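User: tokens in, sequence out, please.
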């Protein structure tokens, strides 16, 4: 007996490719996130980190901002490694398609396990995990958990929940911009953004040097893609597929011209879920138009589980919906302890001047000696050497480099930064591995200092004359020469 013959609307049989993209894509991004954690968490937040988790737990009395395995299972670096590797293995299993071959509860449990693991990390990650794409990944892992396996059609209500997530991402960012700096309204924002963004990529300078009329068109295109197109995701058929393609293309431009960790990459994955199999077949005829035709009917128990989850998503939608239309719109905010149903948005204002904190050291006995040789520490992603080509790091997330960008914007001095300078004076090997260049080759400097420089991209003529990609001018001293005391 076909228990669900009366629920024909429930099955989205024309979205089999969308399910594959969602499950494998979100899992692949989770692997990157867990790998980033494995490489950086212990140095930044571990037992001997810049902001140790143990201190956070003691300071809060265990009352963290959300549930975490490290609340009940006392933190240690070894346990952090176990959590990160577990997430990597689970993500790799989904990318390979193994859990999707079983009954729908198998991928459900795998994704929920990844959600619990990564949520546990983010909750104790403090400022190093205070980025919008952290909660975005948590919400994406939880949402796609209910997409089922290859044996039944993708559930339409879960796909709608994914489209609602994309809507919040795009429309929320668009509203933040319209309500934010004047530069978004007078169409000049992208005359600055490519130069002043947190971590430029290999093509950022070329994008910055494009003519002003092009940058104005960029802003107009951004407003259309974020304020109008997201509504079309909910229109069935080719309209939704076209809207998704527009969002994907705008995100690919951002990927080409900057480094925003996995924010743009996961947006591409999520937005592609609105493209139907028919649209894929139209664009690439080699792709069959009826990939989901061989799936069996949806089991009654699975339909009930999905509908219960759908009701939960509906209830979670109220807070972010209200936030979108309030005058005091919150950006990258969670309304519950589980990081579900979040508010998103970025770059409500664009920085006009790029200030970089440059960290230097010397082994001279007198730091005020005019002949003292001050040598600069090199970061992996943060601009430093004016001749160096910015690298493409995204979707990988360089957390230290990102927070160094925030310091000149009002966070001039934070506890983690003081401890970072202390680690440099100690020549702490794990900390030095976060950098691209240690000018003292593992030895201790006698003194360190921090100076602020104004950076700007060179013009075409300046580049031909100097082969430098940046021009920098001293803006002032932030931290005078400091040394270790017994």
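Assistant: Sequence out:
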């Amino acid at each position: 007996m076909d228990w669900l013959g009366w629920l024909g609307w429930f099955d989205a049989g024309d979205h089999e490719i969308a399910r594959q993209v969602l499950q494998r894509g979100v899992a692949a991004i989770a692997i990157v996130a867990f790998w980033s954690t494995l490489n950086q968490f212990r140095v930044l937040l571990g037992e001997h980190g810049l902001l140790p988790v143990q201190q956070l737990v003691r300071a809060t009395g265990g009352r963290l901002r959300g549930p975490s395995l490290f609340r009940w299972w006392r933190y240690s670096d070894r346990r952090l490694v176990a959590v990160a590797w577990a997430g990597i293995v689970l993500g790799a299993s989904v990318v390979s398609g193994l859990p999707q071959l079983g009954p729908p509860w198998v991928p459900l449990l795998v994704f929920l396990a990844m959600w619990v693991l990564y949520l546990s990390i983010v909750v104790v990650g403090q400022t190093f995990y205070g980025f919008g794409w952290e909660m975005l990944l948590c919400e994406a892992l939880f949402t796609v958990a209910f997409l089922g396996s290859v044996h039944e059609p993708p559930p339409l209500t879960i796909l709608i929940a994914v489209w609602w997530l994309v809507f919040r991402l795009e429309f929320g960012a668009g509203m933040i911009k319209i309500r934010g700096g004047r530069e978004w309204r007078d169409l000049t924002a992208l005359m600055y953004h490519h130069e002043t963004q947190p971590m430029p990529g290999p093509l950022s300078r070329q994008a910055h040097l494009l003519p002003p009329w092009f940058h104005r068109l960029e802003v107009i295109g951004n407003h259309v893609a974020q304020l109008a197109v997201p509504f079309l995701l909910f229109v069935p058929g080719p309209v939704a597929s076209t809207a998704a393609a527009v969002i994907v293309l705008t995100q690919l431009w951002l990927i080409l011209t900057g480094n925003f960790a996995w924010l743009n990459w996961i947006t591409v994955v999520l937005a592609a879920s609105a493209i139907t199999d028919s649209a894929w077949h139209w664009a690439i005829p080699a792709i069959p138009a009826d990939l989901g035709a061989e799936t069996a009917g949806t089991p009654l128990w699975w339909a009930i589980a999905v509908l219960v989850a759908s009701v939960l998503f509906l209830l979670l939608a109220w807070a972010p919906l209200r936030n979108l239309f309030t005058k005091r719109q919150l950006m990258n905010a969670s309304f519950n302890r589980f990081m579900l149903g979040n508010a998103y948005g970025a770059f409500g204002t664009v920085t006009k001047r790029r200030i970089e904190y440059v960290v230097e050291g010397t082994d001279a006995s007198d730091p005020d000696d005019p002949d003292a040789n001050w040598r600069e520490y090199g970061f992996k992603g943060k601009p430093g050497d004016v001749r160096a080509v910015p690298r493409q790091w995204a979707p990988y997330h360089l957390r230290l480099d990102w927070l160094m960008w925030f310091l000149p914007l009002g966070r001039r001095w934070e506890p983690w930064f003081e401890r970072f300078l202390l680690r440099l004076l100690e020549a702490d090997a794990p900390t030095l591995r976060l950098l691209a260049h240690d000018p003292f080759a593992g030895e201790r400097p006698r003194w360190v200092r921090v100076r602020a420089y104004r950076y700007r991209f060179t013009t075409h003529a300046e580049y031909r004359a100097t082969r430098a990609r940046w021009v920098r001018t001293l803006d002032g001293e932030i931290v005078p020469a400091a040394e270790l005391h017994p």
